[in-house]
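Sample entry (265 residues):
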Amino acid sequence: MTTIPNGQGSLSRVLLLGGTSEIGLAILSAIGPGPGHAIGPGHAIGLGTEVILAGRDPGRLKTAGKSLNLPGTVTVMGYDAMDTASHQAFVDEVCAGGAPDLVIAAAGVLFPQREAERDVRLAATMIETNFTGHVTTLLALGEYMRNRGSGTIVVLSSVAAVRPRKFNAVYGASKAGLDAFARGFADELHGTGVRVLLVRPGFVTGRMTAGMRSAPMATTPAAVGAAVAAALRGSKPTVWVPATLAGLASAMRLVPRPVWRRIDR
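Predicted structure, serialized as tokens:
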């Protein structure tokens, strides 16, 4: 664990799984600094906050931490979403300093469908990173947060989870699994003081989608961050980015399968 001094004190703890994620970092930027960006009663990302960036590349994590410009402390920890055997020990280490007030589950990878078909190991990487690793890590974190009786878990799903298409079958399946888990986990934690916020963005223009053809209602990491910040100050369980995507998603479920097969975007 490496700490990058960036301020004084610690009023709350925030954990970003996938510590170099553009969307995850945009969420952190959107909810801090300042007391006006409330996570919940008595919590804010600002002076004294400890932000933990967890990921595989220490160098990139440190660079990401320095770029945040948060007035608290940024801590870098090693974390591999695919190494499920290490997740309980990772969570135990994180929570030795107290369970996080906010967890942002943003670890994720995206490979084109044709590449995954040519190299099925890429398909396994998407499933394990986007789905399996989140399940094992969030179950362990949820137990600590449940025992304390408070906290928020933000899960980054996707509109692809609603109805996977032929050109993103593996990625869509991984997000569909994560989406279903998040909804079920939210029900299990209901009444414990722990909230699960499910985020369903559309096509996000950024590093992960570089070189890909954009889709209708495309958005940006900054827009997702702003939408999540607003949702954290409310109480709804799901946020669509952009908000109009919710209507499109409802329509997607009704498209007959023969027509759906012809959709190439």
